Amino acid sequence: MMATPTATEAAPSRLSVTLRGARLREAGWGYGFAVVPLAVFGLFFIYPLGYAIYISFFHWGILGKIAPGTGTFNYAKVLHDPVFHTALKNIAEYTVAVVPLEMALGLSLALVINQKIRGRNFFRSAFYFPSIASSVAITTIILYIFSQNGLFNHIFGFSKDWFGDASTIGWGIVGMNAWTTSGTVMIFYLAALQAIPDDVYEAAALDDTGAWRTFWKITFPLLKPAHFFCLVVFGIGALKLFDQPFLIAKGASGAPNYSTMYPILYIYNAAFGSSDFGLAAAAGVIYFIIIFGLTIVERLTVGRQEAA
Amino acid sequence: MTLQTSVASAEPYIPGRARSEVARKVLLYSLYLFIAAIFFVPFLWTLTTSFKTIPDSVNVTFWAHPWTTEAWHTLWTNYDFPTYIKNSLFLCAVIVTCNLFLSALGGYAFARLRFPGRELLFLLVLGTLMVPDQLRLIPIFVMMVNWGLYGSFTSYILINLVSAVNLFFMRQYFLTIPRDFEEAAKLDGAGYFKTFWRIMLPLALPAMAALAILQFQGTWNDFFWPLILFGQGNPSHYTLQLGLAELHFNYGTLWPEISAGAVIAIVPILIIFLVFQRFFVSGVVSAGVKG
After folding, report:
1. Residues B183 and B152 both lie in one domain
2. Does residue B283 sit within a domain?
3. Does some domain include residue B84?
4. Of the spans A197-206, B25-34, B140-149, which averages the highest pLDDT?
5. Within 13 Å, how many C-alpha atoms sit on residue A221's CB side?
6. Looking at the domain covering A76-307, what would its CATH class be?
7. pLDDT value of residue B180
8. Which chain B residues touch A29 with a CB distance below 8 Å?
9. Statement: the pTM of the whole predicted model exceeds 0.90
10. Is A274 part of the contact surface with chain B (CB cutoff 8 Å)?
11. Do the beta carbons of residue B142 and residue A55 sit within 8 Å?
């Protein structure tokens, strides 16, 4: 981002004509190199942002505007829809439960890997692997293991259909995603742990501080930037929940009893279930504003914390 | 990791400690192995289930009894998995190639070439990271329907030609390469594209390898956009993840078939992961740091 001083800027003025030509040439190549990526970002990121807002003010069906009228009626409808409220409540509960869980798990795994233990690579691979497997494969595997006749019930003597019951399904998704995401969290904590200089621990060893105390008094506070980083990244990530509830409920209906209804499923359902694209776009804009607001708040508080 | 050694060497020698130390180690490793088992046993279980018969799939025996490749056979003949695999591989190949080329090209321009408005345009690139999929979903679907591209591979390839994360990743890598190489090339009379293609690209190979691996994983595992763009259309365009989801939607208790499908969905990523582990880790950390 920094403008680097170069030979061109210091050159004598009698060369300025050829230099201007060289600069023009460089600029030309610069635009030429960047034009396709910029076109892609403009067409499929920036333009859709405006287009989504535009659509949200109309009665919009699959092929375009379907009824006259412009206004904020889609927004009013979303904001007064009890299903949308349920979706927001569900995602809030999910995020508040899953983020601390995956952070605690990820940090514990990182502490295991960060030791001088035999088979570190094996353990690291084993812990990290669920993070990179596809959500569809993971969800079907977990559904199988937690089905009524599944492995989990056989081992622990339950006879519950964990992902078929509205009272346990949300926790099931929390558990599954905490399990799969903890490997990624582990990688970040591992990088942070390895950045802690050894002399800090050597001082602790000289003071004869126990391992448990060393962790809580020294390691944990030193990991503060990593804690906040994970909180922001995985907090925002959690708000984008879609694949798992969609697969478990076999669609975006939120079955059973709206227990799997989350905001992105609500948007999907409005568009592809009810063919109301205006409503879906409005819900998308509202949810975007909520996430954006949370990001700003998090950045401000976390940024302040990190500076302190 | 030096923590343990330094702590251990600081401790005085206590007779009789060795045995308790061994016991502690055994206990600790058993715990670690147990935790590791929680992470990989589900995958092994899936693998053996794919060789079971349907009645056997609800038994809690680890080994299939009897072993049968029937589920695999069914996937191949009844459910068109070869097409799904081909579709997924095709999309991965095209998208990885495009991302490699375009993000290197764009990343190089933003790292090294000076052109008016560069900083502003770069902010725009980073700004795309703030536009979430749930907001793009409706307009992109509507655009693809209007352009007559809905349900085609083209639609999916177009929106995935290049990503801001990849471009940023390549730009950061180019910034670390000393300028001497380009200046030498310039003295030799090489033009901008030749310098990029012959000098800079070979130097950026490690970054490109990491990018290719992470992009392959992302495209192979992607469920959301294939669902939006060809999930309701012709099954001949299904990706592997869509095919597996469809199998689960329609035949939710055909556990051997579903397990075989899950194995196919996982194995390519597993192989790449085991071979290129360090790229995964470095890629994830550097891609995350930008966030």
Report:
1. yes
2. no
3. yes
4. B140-149
5. 7
6. mainly alpha
7. 87
8. 109, 113, 192-193
9. no
10. no
11. yes
- In angstroms, the CA A234 to CA B282 distance is 18
Query: Cis before residue B12, ω within 30 degrees of 0?
Result: no
Residue B264 within any structural domain of the chain: no
| Residue ranges in B188-276 assigned as alpha helix (H) | 192-194, 201-203, 205-221, 224-230, 240-250, 255-275
Tokens of B226: 């294939």
Residues B124 and B152 in one domain: yes
Specify if B277 maps to a domain: no
- Considering only alpha carbons, which residue of chain B is nearest residue A251? B249
Residues in chain B with CB shorter than 8 Å from the CB of A198 are 2-3, 6
Domain of residue B44, residue span: 15-72
Q: Which residue has the tokens 């809030």?
A: A92
pLDDT at B1 over 70: no
CB A278 within 8 A of CB A57: yes
Q: Distance (Å) from the C-alpha of residue B23 to the closest C-alpha of chain A?
A: 15
Q: Closest Cα partner for B86 from B153, B169, B24?
A: B153
What distance in Å separates residue A151's CA from the closest CA in chain B? 6
Which among B253, B136, B115, B182 has a CA at the least distance from the CA of A35?
B115
> Could you identify the residue written with the tokens 């076999």?
A250
Contact B6, A205 (CB under 8 A): yes
Specify the amino acid at residue A72: T
Please tell me if residue A146 touches chain B, with a CB cutoff of 8 Å. no
- pLDDT per residue over A63-99, tens digit each? 788 888 888 999 999 999 999 999 999 999 999 999 9
Q: Are residues B111 and B162 in the same domain?
A: yes
What string of DSSP letters covers chain A?
Answer: -PPPP-HHHHS-GGGHHHHHHHHHHHHHHHHHHHHHHHHHHIIIIIHHHHHHHHHTTEEEETTEEEEEEESSHHHHHHHT-HHHHHHHHHHHHHHHHHHHHHHHHHHHHHHHHTS--TTHHHHHHHHHHHHHS-HHHHHHHHHHHTSTTSHHHHHHT----TTTSHHHHHHHHHHHHHHHHHHHHHHHHHHHHHTS-HHHHHHHHHTT--HHHHIIIIIHHHTHHHHHHHHHHHHHHHTT--HHHHHHTTSSS-TTTTTT--HHHHHHIIIIIT--HHHHHHHHHHHHHHHHHHHHHHHHHHHHHHH-
Length of chain B in terms of residues written: 291
Instruction: Give the C-alpha separation, B23 to A29, whole Å.
Output: 67
Domain check: are B116 and B242 in the same one?
A: yes
| Domain-wise residue ranges, chain A | 20-55, 76-307
Q: Tell me the chain A residues in contact with residue B167 when contact means C-beta distances shorter than 8 Å.
A: 37
